[in-house]
Amino acid sequence: MEIENYNPNSKIEKQAIEFLELLQKKSKAYFIGGYPRDLLINIFLNKKNITYDIDICIDKNEREVSEILDNIECSYKIIKKGFGVFIVNYKDYKFELACFRKDIGKGDSRNPKTIKFTKNIKKDSKRRDFTINSLYFDAIENKIYDFHKGIEDIKSNRLKFIGNTKKRIKEDNLRIIRYLRLKNKYNLRSDKRTLNIIEKFSKNIKISNYQFKKEINKVLKSKNSSATIYDLDKFLILEKFIEEINNLKGIKLKNKDSNLFETILYKLNFIDNDEFYKIIKNLKIFDKKDINIEKINKYNIVKKLGSEFIWSILFQDLGKTKISEEEVNGERVYKNFEAISKDIFTKKAKLFNFSNKSKEKIEFLILNQNKLDNIKEIEKEKLNQIIKNEYFLDLFLLFIVKNSYLSKDFDKDIKKYKKIIKLI
To answer: What is the pLDDT of residues 369-416, one digit of tens each?
Structure first.
């Protein structure tokens, strides 16, 4: 099919099409995955997804692709040698470029035993996970090739595996988390049989801590992340990797019906809420050179700051599961729980293979999560240390989330935040 009124006007689209044209001089190459999927979801489901990444596939083997790229003004590296997956730096953007291939046999729970490069587009399509991810788009000819009724599934607002669901999940258990992420990101329908299969495999899910961390990072950066975290908890996946998180359900909030796990969901939901970005826009806490204030959204903030401030929400209250409340100045509190939460994260950071920079930032955010609550009472020297810290902006965003995620008067909140900004 052709995409009616196809008008690629963003910078990334224009440069991706330039690169595609260069590849097509020596091969058959197509956009694959998220870009054509989002284009069609926008058309048929009336969404407004914005393109941030574009992946490409090509009918050449690894050696042949290297030879083609050597004759294009770009830089590249092979990220999965033997599997034909490249990261290409072309002008201002990075593009993932993958060779057509056929997966053969079962290796571990993530990779096939071996692969065979192919020039057959249909054979390449069969190895892909979901029907809506197997749409090959020739943007030069404006033609989409669909071998698994992915367009029909988009029109029907549903998410389906290609082929046998059990087999596809057995091949790669990480597809469980991907399925839940895409289902919630696009509000797609899922059938009961698929969810029953996911429930069965979730009990003994076989993915590494690092793979879990990588996929959860995508979840936290996506729309409707709270719904996906809820599903991961429901299928008992979350507690397999962050054991203490399940115990948050037993800690009720004062004068509220919710528990601390539900608080995580509420906060994640607020970060996806337009009101959060209206507050940030009003406060003018970002430099215009760094972020287009008029188009501020989750993607732009994460691109500027990273996703660490969102990760800290998962860990910041876990220390409360290890201690009991104490009475301090007539109030029941969890004394010094922040340090315990930080220690829990530190142990996980090693298993999850966080970079030293990300680890340091999340530790800072967890330890100082309540420091801005009574800013007038903080000693001037200590306050200056916090303000001058390179992660202070992340901390201030967390402060906004904490104080406004259940708010019913955002104008009042903004006035309060402006007073704090004057103090600092």
So the answer is: 999 988 878 888 888 899 999 999 999 999 999 999 999 999 999 999
Of 334, 336, 340, 298, the closest CA to residue 319 belongs to: 340
β pairing state of 112-117 and 101-106: antiparallel
Q: Which domains does the chain have, with CATH numbers?
A: 11-157 (3.30.460.10), 162-239 (1.10.110.30), 242-423 (no CATH)
Q: What is the DSSP string of 44-104?
A: HS---------EEEESS-HHHHHHHHHTSS-EEEEEETTTTEEEEEETTEEEEEEE-EEEE
* pLDDT, position 108: 61
Highest-scoring range by mean pLDDT, 4-8, 257-261, 268-272: 268-272
> Per mean pLDDT, which of 5-14, 106-115, 353-362 is the most reliable?
353-362
- Whole-number Å distance between alpha carbons of 155 and 299: 26
Q: DSSP code of 253?
A: P
Distance CA 78, CA 14 (A): 24
User: Does residue 342 contact residue 363 with C-beta atoms inside 8 Å?
Assistant: yes
Distance CA 96, CA 85 (A): 7
Query: How far, CA to CA in Å, does 67 sit from each of 60, 183, 327?
Result: 10, 39, 70
* Beta carbons of 128 and 37 less than 8 angstroms apart: no
Instruction: Name which residue leads in pLDDT, 423 or 27.
Output: 27
Confidence band for 109, pLDDT divided at 50, 70 and 90 = low
Check whether 138 has a pLDDT greater than 80: yes
Strand-pairing partners, residue 161, are: 130
- Structure tokens given for 136: 């090959």
pTM of the shown model = 0.94
